[in-house]
Amino acid sequence: MSIVLSQLDHRSLPAVPWSLSLAAIQEFEEDCYRYSSESDDEGSLFSIDLNCINHKTKPDQMIQDERVYHVAVDLMKSESSMDALLWTLSQKVTHPSSNNKAVHHVKLVHVFPPIRFIPSPLGMLPRSTVSPKMVKKYLAEERDKRTKLLEKYVNACSTAKVKVDVMLIESDTIAKAILDLVPTQNIRNLVIGTTKSSLRKLGSRKRTGIANQILRKATPETSCDIKIICQGKQVLIDQIIGSPSSRSSNANSLSTQEDQDQE
Fold first, then answer.
1. What is the pTM of this model?
2. What is the mean pLDDT of the chain?
């Protein structure tokens, strides 16, 4: 198991052994929380590489030309996130140099807000005013919830025999946090799930969803292939970010890649 950290001092964190289970996410997060609470960084990235669990392979043994997909995971909208992941897992192609499937690597990207308030009998209280014991207990509960919710995504990758990382980002701005990863993590393929109701908003002025924010804020320098998935199908982004007239159309006029292939 390897750890990749952004905006953190690697030397300040303990060494992590190669052989760890998914449950170790909680213990690792606890160390990261302890560190981040002592730092002044507004956002932190904790990346957990589960490759050795599923493949028992170290980085220096991995194929260099593997195709890597980063899949944004919203634990509050698990259906659209799972659709995006399953679409990604279905994108296996035959490696040109052999009859075997190309080696794929999925990185699950989950952004969660910093915990500033802790529940108490008196209501939600600022974290700084609550005892360390209460803070630790609440953080442990939140980590446990997050780990259990992430587990099904990791299991889906394991079932498909695809290598998987879990990238946890602590930030208030989801779209910005994800886009900031593009240059620092050398992201080339970013997959984002969206619901049908959010897809309608992509074609209107009420464009507040994460997928739309990422599309609007992405620049030519982003150098990343962004794919939007709705109900298991890829949405054609050109129709979303094209001319004003095309953006004013409703969701029914937004075709998918599958629709075009059938024409």
1. 0.69
2. 70
